UniProtKB/TrEMBL annotation:
This is NADPH:quinone reductase. Keywords: NADP, Oxidoreductase. It comes from the Bacteria. Its EC number is 1.6.5.5. It holds the Pfam family ADH_zinc_N. The lineage of its organism: Bacteria, Pseudomonadati, Pseudomonadota, Betaproteobacteria, Neisseriales. Transmembrane segments: none annotated. InterPro entries: ADH-like_C, ADH-like_N, ER, GroES-like_sf, NAD(P)-bd_dom_sf, QOR-like. Residues 12-322 form the Enoyl reductase (ER) domain. NCBIfam families: PRK10754.1. It comes from Deefgea chitinilytica.
Length: 324
């Protein structure tokens, strides 16, 4: 069985991504053959491509997709040919027309959820789930700060937090994104404003927020600490503006006995039970209409270079999809 996939042979810019035809290995026990229907593009894909998160070469790219099972290996009893499934995380290689995937990484997709929503939001939805429910379990009446509120994770997490009774302050990087985020944030701030930290303090009557969810990284890290209430938590879960290299640990004491964590989805879905529970909680929130995901833009698999360029330049909103 052959597949058409995006492959890189060395780390670097978007020019390293090439569309190639490759032979798939034999289907093993516990594995299924998927025909992809839609593929999600995430910021972590750019980290894998650039080498921020190094890969063994040659390598595919992509962590998220929705597809139909075309063949099933030995030892699989809960999935069958024809099932529509999705995955998010695990080994890279989602940028492909067909792929062999370990069955224990797959979750069944409810009939009401479109291919693009399953492919383009499962990673983001499960990220929002662990951030809001486990990294810092938000409670009704709390005020939180969520950076990049118009982004893929931000739009889902902010809607979900509001449904849980939380007051949401969202930051964005442009007037256009401010308009979008105002639909699901109680307050919207442009983090390019020199006084954005002061604005957060003013909105919280000087107290600060219980938690800051920061996927931006270097550009907002220091300011995020200054937005926290005493014993508040900064969940730094991404590096869209660059990695946070180091900081003085003593600042946490000076600024109010603060907490900082660098969580990842992989550590919150370490086994199949955690994976299924996380995905089902997200699907349930979708079913309750707590969240209306935005599929912002769609590209052909062959146009993946442009997709990465647009993502890096912050020209995207919501989720980005590749169609095989």
């Amino acid at each position: 069985m052959q597949t058409t996939r995006i492959e890189i042979t060395q780390h670097g810019g978007v020019e390293q991504m090439a569309l190639v035809t490759a032979q798939l290995p034999e289907l093993g026990a516990g594995e299924v053959l998927l025909k992809h229907l839609a593929i999600g593009v995430n910021f972590i894909d750019t980290y894998h491509r650039s080498g921020l998160y190094p890969l063994t070469m040659p390598s595919g790219l992509g962590l998220e997709a929705c597809g139909v099972i075309e063949a099933v290996g030995h030892g699989i009893h809960d999935l069958k040919i024809g099932d529509r499934v999705a995955y998010a995380g695990g080994a890279v290689g989602a940028y492909a027309t067909h792929r062999i995937v370990a069955a224990d990484k797959l979750v069944l997709v409810p009939e009401a959820i479109p291919d693009a929503v399953a492919a383009g939001t499962l990673l983001r939805g499960m990220t929002a789930q662990y951030l809001l429910k486990r990294t810092f379990p938000v409670q009704a009446g709390q005020t939180i700060l969520f950076h990049a509120a118009a982004g893929g994770v931000g739009q889902i997490a902010c809607q979900w937090a509001q449904a849980l009774g939380v007051t949401v302050i969202g930051t964005v990087g442009s007037k256009e994104k401010a308009v979008q985020a105002s639909a699901y944030c109680d307050h919207v701030i442009d983090y390019h404003d020199a006084d954005w930290v002061a604005q957060v303090r003013e909105l919280t009557e000087g107290q600060g927020v219980s938690v800051v969810y920061d996927g931006v990284g270097e550009a907002t890290f220091a300011g995020s600490l200054d937005c926290l209430a005493v014993r508040g938590l900064l969940a730094s879960f991404g590096n869209a503006s660059g990695a946070v290299s180091s900081f003085n640990l003593g600042l946490l004491a000076q600024k109010g006995s603060l907490f900082v964590t660098r969580p990842t989805l992989a550590h919150y879905t370490r086994n199949r039970a955690e994976l299924v529970e996380t995905a089902q909680d997200y699907f349930a929130a979708l079913a309750k209409s707590w969240i209306t995901p935005q599929i912002g833009q769609t590209y052909a698999l062959a146009d993946v270079q442009q997709a990465h360029l647009d993502l890096a330049a912050r020209r995207t909103t919501g989720s980005t999809i590749l169609l095989p």
